[in-house]
Structure formats: C-alpha cells, structure tokens
Amino acid sequence: MARAFTPKVVTANALLEGDVIYLAADDSWTRTLSDAELLTDEADAQIRLLHAEQQSERIVGAYLADAIAGPNGPEPTHFREAFRRTGPSNYFHGKQAETHV
C-alpha cells in the first residue's frame, strides 16, 4: 500500500549567497518559509521541483521538504527544516538577527 502524500515546499540554497530559499507560487524565490508555496498534490510537487532544478544559475540543491499549513503559511514538520530556516548557527547574524523569525 502506498503512503499518502504529505504537503511539501520546494527548498534550495541561493547559489551566490548560500541562503536557504523557498519557491513561492509566483515562481519567485523567498527567504521566508511562510511565503513559500505549499504543495498538496504529489504530481504538482514533482513539476514544481523540476521547474526549480532548471534554475541552476540561481539555486543549488533543490528538494521537496515536508511542511504543514500554519496560521501564517507553511511550517516545517521536521527539525532539520526548522533549523535550516533560521540560518547559520555559528553566531547571531542574518535571519537570526531579525526580530520576526
């Protein structure tokens, strides 16, 4: 029996800056998970991932990450993604320095 599809977001790293980014519904890339497109259909998720992977001049390492619908947009379901969205952990800078994270 096949497992039920769980909602996903397309995530990658920005090629030049290295920041974690997410694919939005308008095909732009955002650094804020809550602005990402939440994909609830497996076929759509695969198509969006293929679209992202074709942008090798902008991104690297695109993949589908599990997410759930939250009150302000997608939220991670796994510790790895919760950790990635806050940025580097070696010191307080970037996303970690922002008050709305």
TrEMBL record:
Source organism of this protein record: Shimia litoralis
InterPro entries: DUF2849 (IPR021270)
Classification lineage: Bacteria, Pseudomonadati, Pseudomonadota, Alphaproteobacteria, Rhodobacterales
Protein name stated in the entry: DUF2849 domain-containing protein
A Pfam family it matches: DUF2849
